[in-house]
Specification:
The protein has 62 residues and is mainly alpha-helical. 63% of the residues lie in helices and 6% in strands. The protein has one domain. It has a two-stranded antiparallel ribbon. A hairpin with a 5-residue loop joins β1 and β2.
Length: 62
Amino acid sequence: MGSTQNRFIKQQKEKKKLQKKKEKEERKRERQENNAKGGNLEDMIAYVDKFGNITSEPPEKS
């Protein structure tokens, strides 16, 4: 009886381990999908106007 109980416990631990690994892969994939859409360089550039305020539009050339 002891060996069957040990086998059952090992199987339960293995199931939990696989479940955690699956959840971790899902979180990793979600992070990669969310991060991919914010990588445009033009969206990250900021300009400073003549008053020192930060704007997203380039300054006018005069």
